[in-house]
Amino acid sequence: MTAILGISAFYHDSAAALVVDGEIVAAAQEERFTRKKHDYNFPVKAIEYCLREAGITADQLDYVGFYDKPILKFDRLLETYLAYAPAGFQSFLQAMPLWLRQKLHLPREMDRGLGGKFKKRYIFTEHHESHAASAFFPSPFEEAAILTVDGVGEWATASVGFGRGNKITLTHEQRFPHSLGLLYSAFTYFTGFTVNSGEYKLMGLAPYGKPLYINQIMKLIDLKDDGSFRMDMSYFNYCQGLTMTSRKFDQLFDGPPRNAESPITQREMDIAASIQKVTEDIMLRCARFAHQQTGMKNICLAGGVALNCVANGKILREGPFENIWIQPAAGDAGGALGVALFIWHQLLDQPRTPQPRDQQYGSLLGPAYDDVQIRSFLDAQRAIYEFIPDDDALCERVAQAIADGKVVGWFQGRMEFGPRALGSRSIIGDPRNPDMQTIINLKVKFREGFRPFAPAVLEEHCPEYFEMKRGEESPYMLLVAPVQESKRVRGGGGAEVVGIDKLKQPRSVVQAITHVDYSARVQTVDRERHGLYRRLIEKFYHKTGCPVIVNTSFNLGWEPIVNLPKEAFDTFMSCELDVLVLGHCVLFKQAQPAVFPPFSSDQIRVAEPIMRCPCHGQRLRFENSAAICAVSGHRFVKTDGIWQMFWPHEGITEKSDVTEMVKAFYEETPFPNYDDHDTLRSLIEKARRGMYAQALDRSIAYNSTVLEVGCGTGQLSNFLGIGCRRVVGTDMCLNSLRLGETFRREQGITRTQFVQMNLFRPCFEPEQFDVVLCNGVLHHTADPKDGFMGLVPLVKPGGHIIIGLYNRYGRLMTDLRRNIFQLIGGKAKWIDPILRREKISQAKQKAWFADQYRHPHESKHTIDEVLGWFEEAEVQFVRGIPSVTSEGNSLDKCDLFNSQPVGTALDHILVQLRQIAAGNREGGFFLMIGRRPKAGSGVPDRSWHADKATAAADRPKEIGAWR
């Protein structure tokens, strides 16, 4: 047995692949295990998986290969910096530490990654050799031309050659800095997308525009008939700077690059259409040159640009080749497979026998999980699911769900290797539904609504729907083909539709997978590769007469494709997927405890089942959009969809009561958390930029019931409600709540409800909430301790309460600035570090200044003071944020409800002294998290339910006044 491990690392999409006696045993990207999208670190976990799949250890490996030659790459880096010196000095300083620490010491890094067990020599191939090997050796061809195109390897940015038998030969190359991959990435950057991951978006955006900028692009490059070109580097900045384009580029393309947070305009659409057209032309020229050089009828493609499936389709339809095969993991990840196969065939001279369907086994080379593992996980989650052991019955049930308009998460067999979901880790739906593209983009994937989806079609029916020849395969979703004219539906007459409005136009009988230019990225599904997935589509075809389904990757827009059952379950619970199929286990969203009818954003009933009258604690009778108190008969009403359950509290003298004053302040100055262009995705992106919101989302279990007290505009309540949780957001300020309710309604969030409430007179039954959040309101009340004591009874035994307060030490610098502002009339706002941030809007600057320096009332507290509250309420301390001890603890990946040490009084003093500096930047805010004991806690019932309800019932004059 000869075992060969291939590795790609340190640049983009690290991966590992294992070949045993010429057979591909396993291959996977590191991102699927670490959950860091495009993880470039050494693929320790991917290697562990590959060895585990083969049943061997690192010391049993015969060869380990790395997919490029770092010394040559370093040579290119130094030569480039020297050529542009001193202009590239800042970029040089950023790049050098990683090179000096890791990339120049690859044998040492590989020894470490393999646990020091591999004692033989490492083999390094050139980058484009690895690409070429990954393209040809698994292909079904005895001989073929080879074309590899990407950003850059060592020096090469593209290569042409051929493969014959068990050998490949590269005959031509284009060299850095002239690169089609980097040219395309420059436009990816300029249109506001992320380089090395946003290229798909640029390609998807292109059909919405017109190629009006081709003449400008041709000023950037000197293009030859053979597809080679030279770039005018005065328009670019990637050799010497930290951006892709220069200011000269801005002048040529009508202004600066689009900010990633800003709306996409017609300019970006037209630029995308233009660079896509140029890219297709260059790729077609390269393919013709490869044919001219080799005279072969087949071609194999690899490199990142080979993932441009529109260009691939053009090569197939308009190029000189009869057959095309593209490496499914065409980017850097595929280099790991390429180097392993290169060692086996090219260096060891082992024979190669092409297979009719290729040798990559559908690229299903990742981990698989059986029903025992899946059921064990689901049972531990107390998930509600059906187990359907029979394959036919399973596919019948799921096919019916798809036909009924449900969006399904499909998790079966081995995970895919490469960027595409191919029927093992897929989100699937009915392509006939004209709303399906929008539903999946905006409410499932949380990504841009213009992004297209691929059709998975039964192989034999492909020519009926797409302009592809009978028997022509596209099993890896790497070819775009036009939808057949007979399946198209034309829009109405009138003015020409342009831009994003094209998305609203009818296009075909399979609307959800037909792009606005009447094309589709096709996946053909056959029996040999696709097994159960094929059977599911057959069942759907028998039910509907449609042999096509929607297929997109099973992940949220910012995450890698799911690997584990847990990740699939978390994704299902985090978005509006209707059905999850894990092996033979089927979960329906509407069967989950946090979901209840009516399933409509206009008829939310999260709060009603647990609401009580705030004045008497009695049940409410709901009729004619009113909630009526059983004791007083008082009618509480809804305003703009928000229950007005506010009731004045007692026990505080009129002089000391600041409630109405604070309420009036927030009615006048609600914090503007929502911008005009906000979507679910932008809300999630904002939350993900904050570690606390991420930690809450990670720590609060699905199906929990959550109360946020003092929710303001409800941004956090809406964010938590996107996942499968019941969330009630309360505040005194009706104007703030209106902003949250408007966003909730517009975005169709169905598990969040907003209620106007006084936290001293809560309108909920005790022990109803798994988590109570009171992030920043108690310090704006007359008696924060009493407010906390009134909230504790709302928490279920075993549940958690989180309160946020101003720290007495951390607030010192803010108090100093407040005094300065009072003296100088509010001028010199730049002395506040938040107001110095360039990206904060004027409205938010105004609201922040008012909240921090013009607020009518605030109190400050210490750690020990709040711990005293916890002790009195018999709430167990869990942790503080920041930590209450000098050791500290990061919020990154932590579970907020895992207990941390409470420390000593000295610890608390030292921590708070540090807060003087930290509070200067952050406003001196701190959080304390507690857990209510499950049983026998003896927690005093400080709610009005216990000691005020009877007295209130005996006050008919007060009741009469309310009537």
Describe this structure in words.
With 963 residues, this protein is an alpha/beta fold. Among the domains are: 371-490 and 498-591, DHBP synthase (Alpha-Beta Complex), CATH 3.90.870; 639-809 and 859-911 and 923-947, Rossmann fold, CATH 3.40.50.150. Helices cover 35% and strands 18% of the residues. It is built from 32 helices and 33 strands. Strands 22, 23, 24, 25, 26, 27, 28, 29, 30, 31, 32 and 33 form a twelve-stranded mixed sheet that branches. Strands 13-21-20-14-15-19-16-18-17 form a nine-stranded mixed sheet, sandwiched between helices. Strand 7 and strand 8 form a beta hairpin. Helix 11 crosses helix 12, helix 15 packs across helix 18 and helix 21 crosses helix 23 (715-722). The longest helix has 29 residues, at 266-294. The termini are far apart.
What's the topology here?
Layout: E1 3-8, E2 15-20, E3 23-29, H1 31-34, H2 44-54, E4 63-66, H3 70-84, H4 89-101, H5 106-113, E5 122-124, H6 127-136, E6 143-149, E7 156-164, E8 167-175, H7 180-190, H8 199-205, H9 214-220, E9 221-223, E10 229-231, H10 247-252, H11 266-294, E11 298-302, H12 309-318, E12 323-326, H13 332-347, H14 371-380, E13 386-387, H15 391-403, E14 408-411, E15 425-429, H16 436-444, E16 454-458, H17 462-465, E17 479-482, E18 519-525, H18 527-544, E19 548-553, H19 565-574, E20 579-582, E21 585-588, E22 620-623, E23 626-629, E24 635-639, E25 642-644, H20 659-668, H21 680-689, H22 691-699, E26 705-709, H23 715-722, E27 726-731, H24 734-747, E28 752-756, E29 769-774, H25 784-791, E30 795-807, H26 812-824, H27 842-853, E31 860-861, H28 863-873, E32 876-881, H29 905-922, E33 925-931, H30 944-947, H31 949-953, H32 956-962
Parallel strand pairs: 1-4, 4-5, 6-11, 11-12, 14-20, 16-18, 25-28, 26-27, 26-29, 27-28, 29-30, 30-31
Antiparallel strand pairs: 1-2, 2-3, 6-7, 7-8, 9-10, 13-21, 14-15, 15-19, 16-19, 17-18, 20-21, 22-23, 23-24, 24-25, 30-33, 32-33
